[in-house]
Amino acid sequence: MAATVTGGAGAARAEAVPAAPPVVTRAALDPSLVAGRGADVGFLEQEAEHATTNGTLIGPGRTAYTLASEASGRRAVSLAPGQFVEFTLPAATNAITVRYSIPDAPTGGGITAPLAVSVGRRPARTMMLTSQYAWLYNQYPFSNDPTAGLLHPDWWITECSCVPAATTPTPTITRPFRPHHFYDEQRMLLGPTYPAGSVLRLAVPAGSVAPWTVIDLLDSELVAPPRVVPVAANVLAFGADPTGRRDSAGAFDRAIAFARRTKLKVYLPPGTYRVNRHVIVDEVTIEGAGNWHTIVKGREVALDTPAPDGSVHTGVGFYGRPASAGGSRNVHLSGFAIEGDVRERIDTDQVNGVGGALSHSSVDGLYLHHTKVGLWFDGPMTDLRVTNNVIVDQIADGLNFHTGVTNSVVRNNFVRNSGDDGLAMWSEETGNAGNIIDRNTVQSPVLANGIAVYGGTDNTVSRNLVADPVREGSAIQVGSRFGAEPFTGHLWITENTTARAGTYELNWNIGLGAIWFYALDRSIDADIQVVGDHYLDNTYNAVMLVSDWPVKDRYAITNVHFRDVRVDGAGTSVVSARTAGSASFANVDARHVGVVGVNNCGSFHFTPAGSEFSLTDLGGNDGGWLAPWLLPNTITCDDRPPVVTPPPPSTW
């Protein structure tokens, strides 16, 4: 599996040089390009490719199943034993997060390997890296076994352009098949506070069992002292063990029951608490000392018999009561970390960090790591505030509003390395309505989309930063799929920035758009306003509108309006239309467009009257991309146009 280290073009050996000034980025971009968008976080991001190293640079590369494609900014640094990378700290720092990858074990299950962390002349400390939560393989829902044959040999696959089980002779499929989810991250409190300008070194010891260690980035921050809540139901008084040696689930239950009777908060002091099941919450406030200081950690536990919801495992998580039992209300969770133990994707399992139905509630300032989904809410429920959380290294979604979630807000959250949609609203059976996804950052979802909206009424996606989706998804998707209720009322998509988006759709063998409208289950005809978005460095298209081939003559996409949009770099087109329908454009400026401004295939009938998709020019569309000869519905269909790599984005 070491061959994937070079999985991008432009690998080169870099000689060590004196420490360079720090280069601080946001989603591997100059912060000036994303001002006012994305989450306001407490850490500063530094990409390893800008640091000092005697290792090997990998990338840039956007081809799925390579380490470069899943790296932030599509570049990283690979270290052999004995090599290092050095970062100059840009501000006072007492804590770091390292995003890295090390190889899997030959038969799966992961390995552990040391990384030496030192600042200046201080003695090095050891951060023990692991790949136990990384490295998935094969077809959905994936496998931890790199040696396994196809999970679904009766599915069509791109690799042979065939259905292997129905093909003679049977095609040879390379193993491991489709390796992905390579990265993980770890946090470390450094102890002393180091001033700006200090040099922090990450070094792989000469005797490391890992033949390579890829460092993607370093996040550095100044963590505040532990928060103390003196008047509260302190879980230590109810028998909780802050060393993590004994299970504290029962103590948590007792503290919650006491707090409800006495109208007190529950306080989780600094420590690591072992909890191997759901903690049920209702009418309670639970506060930790800060998510660096209070850690609730648990193993995934196999159930003797499946639970009523279909789960075959349980694990650490804070759950409201199910909506069928009336749900929970007035629950407020803040200031602690949830560290799970989820290493495989089993869709029926409820092994999420936070779940159930929580109305008139809030989740603030949590760190959610190694659960299946960070926050999965099954409604109906209303008035939930999800704010200021860090959601990383999930096997599936970062957050999902599933079924009848209304009048709720997701704001200022940071999501990285989700195994499915970063943030999603899924109106299955019951529509979501009146929700806002605002000022969040979503980086490197390894499958599917950064932000996805599946049906619903009067929802808003605004001021978010989404970067580096890897495959079969976009930065933003508007999808009539997965049995979702229709889009009704309006959908506002405003002032978002996407970077290096527009991925390869594995099953269709085509490139997607940074924003992707998809009519699969029904037409999309609600009032959709896309205003003020910036689509930067798009791999393929900036905008794609598509109906799946079997339904292309039944469903259309209409009533979509783009205004005050900027497209800085598109590998193929500004707009790709593969559906019947229409859209309007006003003040949409584009530059560095690779092939043609509009790739208009309509519904692929190529009629003498032109495409079944029409574009309306409302004026101010600069850059020559929406030329008069393209209007209203000139056929310009190129099913798989060549890609012209755009230059890096810059100030407009």
TrEMBL record:
Residues 44-223 form the CBM6/CBM35/CBM36-like domain. It holds the Pfam family CatAgl_D1. SUPFAM superfamilies: Pectin lyase-like (SSF51126). Residues 260-605 form the Alpha-1,3-glucanase catalytic domain. Gene3D superfamilies: Single-stranded right-handed beta-helix, Pectin lyase-like. The keyword RNA-binding does not apply. One of its GO terms (molecular function) is lyase activity. Keywords: Lyase. This is Pectate lyase superfamily protein. The lineage of its organism: Bacteria, Bacillati, Actinomycetota, Actinomycetes, Micromonosporales.
